[in-house]
Structures are given as structure tokens and as C-alpha cells.
């Protein structure tokens, strides 16, 4: 994984002046002659850049931030505008000058770090060479930890399934544990089949070397008991209810929940806040073979609830259910599940705004506010209890894929909540984990969702 970095403190740096727009046009910083930038067409519009010439070449630059005051009830249309400067500036160290009062330098610096990310495992991909000197008053340690977690999540989601099967995901977890002194426990084979029968059923058809497993990380030290459970379906064919080829193209990202909880664990560990944290990842490949689990099968879960399989392509909730049940047995103060779970969530909110489900109004409000404040937006959907009947079939306790097509994200969340009983608070995130088109600070490909919202809301959640 590439390490995010700021330019060294005290580095020989060039100034990057931030220019906002007022009612009468650009608000020029003191000492800047507007003649040259105006002649170059620079008006301080959001994302505009103007390089300033000097005796030795480029002496500095102007960067437009438009009207920086966004009403609190309306998100900015572009999340990380400062990332445009990181991408376009010449090589070297740069320092921000002339930020208007109230301008969020922390947000700007984080966007710059996110712009440095490149996925270069399979071909060279040079990151931008402009480096930012961390602005005064900005917590560099926290930003670097958040960027490292984001980089890890992106790397994992971007890696094809041929190079990131269940065993490979286990190795990633072991590497993270070794870096931060966590304990690792991996359950496979007969122990998995006996103790976590739905995880085993979903993953048993995978080929040699890709057997299902449940990966557990425990971080030592004091702190509230927090369990993070991430869906680790390393590739999803749909099973016997096989997906069309067009729907399989992005299924390397079906372990996005696991990528996000590992990224969040990386961030918490770097910040010294992982004490008491437990991470569970049911890692499987939903494959097609003679021993695939079948539509119509009834599985008995770890919790003892029976589940009728009405669609083998609704496998994520099956593997999460067994992991959630195990996590709940220790009655954690907070349990969070993250999963690329339903197309219904994408239809409702699109790829950029993941829904979350939470019964506690104060906790839900804390997550929403943290998401708004840290450029990681999330949106609450309800555990709508009148829909409970939709997940209760005739011959088993639960149905993994209710017919009718309505409220798919909600019925999936209700299904999972049945297995989370015992936790002090339970929150479920139905993420997409993928950036469909490049945006500042977010290249096309894998992306973290919900991690910063959880990180900053955590003190209020436990």
C-alpha cells in the first residue's frame, strides 16, 4: 500500500493563494496584482488554477474556491475541490496562503492527500508530484491515518478476485494485525461448517485454495467493546441463481464491506483508538459447482434460526448473519456491519450516498452530522417493522430474498437485525464501494464509504 504523505515541515515551498468570489468579483489576496490572472481568464471560480510566473519559473499559484460559504443544509456539489490543485500543480512543495475566515483547511488537506492515491499494481501509475505542507492548526496525524485507511480500502476493492480470494483477504488481515499488535483467529473447514453453517454453505463450492473462512481480529487495550463486521464476498457469481455477465463485471468489489472495516481498523489503530476493537470478516467466494447451495434449501444459522434460500444471489446477508450472531454473543457496546448488499440501496440513493440503518435516534444523528462535517455523507433509512412479515416464509424462520421486489434494502437490514440482538447499539451500512466516474480526490474505482462518519461519530456511539 502506498503511504500518504505531506511535504516535510519547513520544506522550501511555494505559495498557493486561495481566491474566493465576492459580489463584485474575485477577492484578491494582499500583494497580488490582478492584471495577469485576469488576462489569463482567472476569476476565482471554484477549481480554477492560475500559475504565477517568477524569475526562476513558477513563483506561486492562485486557486479559486468560489463562494466558500455553503449553507449548512446543502452539501457542496464537489466534495474535494482542493484535489484539483493537487493534480494540476507543478512538482514540489506547496503551502496554502490567504484562506478566508471559516475555510475548512482540514477538509482541503484531506482532499489533497486523497488525490495522491494511485492503484499501480498492474501498470505504472505515477501520482501527482505536488506535495502539500500541512497547514498550521491541522492535525496531520489524524489526516494521514484517515488517508491510509482510505488507501487500503481502495486497494482491496480495486484488486481482481484472482489475486484477492478468501485466503488473500486473510493475509491482508494478518498483515494489518502484525503492524498494530492485534490477535488473529481464522476459522475454516469442519469448525466453520459446524459453528458457522451459513458461511460454509455459501463458500463451499469455491475452487482449490479459495475455501471459505471467518477472519477475526482483536485489538488489545482498554476501550469500549466495538465490533465491526464486513461482508467479504471476494467474488459473486450469484451462485446457481447466476448473474448475467454484465452484472458480474464489478463483482470483485463485493468484498467492499470487508475493505471498509479493515480500512477503518487501520485508521483507528494508527490513531491509538483501536483498544477493545473486534473485526469479523466472513470471507467467501460465491461460486457455481456441484456442491453449490441451492434455491429452496433451508439453512440453520449459528443463532439457530432457519433460513429458506429463495435466491442464491442474496448470499451476503447469509454470511453476515453468522458473523453478527457470533459478535453479538459478546454483547458489544456497538456493532456495525458494512456490506455491498443490495441493488435497492443504489436505486434509492445512487452510488455516492450510502444508506445506514439504526434504531437509536441520537446515534443516527451523530453519524449523519459526522458524515456532513467530514465529506463522507450517509443517509438514514428505517428498520421499518411492518415489513418484518416479508422476511418470514412459510417453512422456515426467515427468507433470504423476499419476493415482490419492494423495499429490498430495508428487508435485508431487518434480516440482519435478527442476528444482531445482544449488541448495545447496532448500525448497518449498505455501501456501494465504487466510484463510477472520476471526481476530485476520488479516481474511478474502489472507494471508502462511511469510514470517516463512523470514526468521528464513535465517541457518541459508545
What does this protein look like?
It holds the Pfam family Peptidase_M17_N_1. One of its GO terms (biological process) is proteolysis. This is Leucyl aminopeptidase. The protein is of the alpha/beta class and 462 residues long. It folds into two domains: 13-116, Leucine Aminopeptidase, subunit E, domain 1, CATH 3.40.220.10; 146-461, Aminopeptidase. The protein has helices at 35-39, 82-88, 105-115, 140-158, 166-180, 189-195, 197-203, 245-248, 256-270, 316-328, 343-349, 361-373, 408-417, 451-461; strands at residues 13-22, 25-27, 49-54, 57-66, 92-97, 130-132, 183-187, 213-218, 226-230, 232-236, 277-286, 298-300, 306-308, 334-339, 355-358, 379-381, 398-399, 425-430, 434-435, 445-446. The strands form four sheets. Strands 7, 8, 9, 10, 11, 14, 15, 16 and 18 form a nine-stranded mixed sheet that branches. A hairpin with a 5-residue loop joins strand 12 and strand 13. The longest helix has 19 residues, at 140-158. The two termini are 31 Å apart.
How are the SSEs ordered, and which strands pair?
Elements: E1 13-22, E2 25-27, H1 35-39, E3 49-54, E4 57-66, H2 82-88, E5 92-97, H3 105-115, E6 130-132, H4 140-158, H5 166-180, E7 183-187, H6 189-195, H7 197-203, E8 213-218, E9 226-230, E10 232-236, H8 245-248, H9 256-270, E11 277-286, E12 298-300, E13 306-308, H10 316-328, E14 334-339, H11 343-349, E15 355-358, H12 361-373, E16 379-381, E17 398-399, H13 408-417, E18 425-430, E19 434-435, E20 445-446, H14 451-461
Parallel strand pairs: 1-4, 1-5, 5-6, 9-11, 9-14, 10-11, 13-17, 14-18, 15-16
Antiparallel strand pairs: 1-2, 3-4, 7-8, 8-11, 12-13, 15-18, 19-20
Helix pairs in contact: 2-3, 3-4, 4-9, 6-7, 7-10, 9-14, 12-14
Amino acid at each position: 500500500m502506498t503511504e500518504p504523505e505531506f511535504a516535510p515541515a519547513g520544506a522550501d515551498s511555494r505559495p498557493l493563494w486561495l481566491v474566493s468570489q465576492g459580489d463584485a468579483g474575485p477577492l484578491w489576496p494582499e500583494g497580488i496584482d490582478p492584471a495577469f490572472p485576469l488576462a489569463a481568464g482567472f476569476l476565482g471560480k471554484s477549481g480554477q488554477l492560475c500559475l504565477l510566473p517568477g524569475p526562476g519559473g513558477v513563483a506561486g499559484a492562485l486557486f479559486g474556491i468560489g463562494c466558500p460559504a455553503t449553507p449548512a443544509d446543502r452539501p457542496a456539489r464537489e466534495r474535494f475541490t482542493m484535489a484539483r490543485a493537487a493534480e494540476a500543480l507543478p512538482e514540489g512543495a506547496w503551502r496554502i496562503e490567504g484562506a478566508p475566515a471559516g475555510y475548512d483547511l482540514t477538509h482541503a488537506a484531506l482532499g489533497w492527500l486523497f488525490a495522491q492515491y494511485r492503484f499501480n499494481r498492474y501498470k505504472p501509475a505515477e501520482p501527482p508530484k505536488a506535495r502539500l505542507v500541512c497547514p498550521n492548526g491541522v492535525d496531520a496525524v489524524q489526516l494521514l491515518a484517515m488517508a491510509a485507511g482510505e488507501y487500503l480500502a481502495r486497494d482491496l476493492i480495486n484488486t481482481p478476485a484472482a489475486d484477492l480470494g478468501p485466503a488473500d483477504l486473510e493475509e491482508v488481515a494478518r498483515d494489518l494485525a502484525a503492524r498494530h499488535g492485534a490477535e488473529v483467529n481464522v476459522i475454516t473447514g469442519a469448525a466453520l461448517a459446524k459453528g458457522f453453517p451459513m458461511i460454509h454453505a455459501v463458500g463451499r463450492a469455491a475452487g482449490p485454495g479459495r475455501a471459505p473462512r471467518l477472519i477475526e481480529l482483536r485489538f488489545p487495550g482498554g476501550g469500549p467493546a466495538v465490533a465491526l463486521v464486513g461482508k467479504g464476498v471476494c467474488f459473486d457469481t450469484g451462485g446457481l441463481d447466476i448473474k448475467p455477465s454484465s452484472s458480474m463485471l464489478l463483482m470483485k468489489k463485493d468484498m467492499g464491506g470487508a475493505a471498509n472495516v479493515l480500512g477503518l481498523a487501520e485508521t483507528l489503530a494508527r490513531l491509538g483508538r483501536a483498544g477493545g476493537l473486534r473485526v469479523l470478516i466472513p470471507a467467501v467466494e460465491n461460486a457455481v459447482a456441484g456442491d453449490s447451495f441451492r434455491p429452496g434449501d433451508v439453512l440453520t444459522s449459528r443463532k439457530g434460526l432457519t433460513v429458506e434460500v429463495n435466491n442464491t444471489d442474496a448470499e451476503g446477508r447469509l454470511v453476515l448473519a453468522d458473523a453478527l450472531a457470533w459478535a453479538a454473543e459478546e454483547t458489544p457496546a456497538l456493532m456495525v456491519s458494512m456490506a455491498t448488499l443490495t441493488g435497492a440501496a443504489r436505486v434509492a440513493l445512487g452510488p455516492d450516498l450510502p444508506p445506514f440503518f439504526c434504531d437509536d435516534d441520537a446515534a443516527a444523528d451523530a453519524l449523519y452530522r459526522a458524515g456532513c462535517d467530514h465529506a463522507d455523507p450517509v443517509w438514514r433509512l428505517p428498520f421499518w417493522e411492518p415489513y418484518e412479515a416479508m422476511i418470514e416464509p412459510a417453512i422456515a424462520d426467515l427468507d433470504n430474498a423476499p419476493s415482490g421486489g419492494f423495499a429490498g434494502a430495508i428487508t435485508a437490514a431487518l434480516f440482519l437485525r435478527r442476528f444482531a440482538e445482544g449488541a448495545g447499539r447496532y448500525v448497518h451500512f449498505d455501501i456501494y464501494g465504487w466510484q463510477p466516474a472520476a471526481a476530485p480526490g476520488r479516481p474511478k474505482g474502489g472507494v471508502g464509504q462511511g469510514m470517516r462518519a463512523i470514526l468521528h461519530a464513535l465517541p457518541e456511539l459508545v
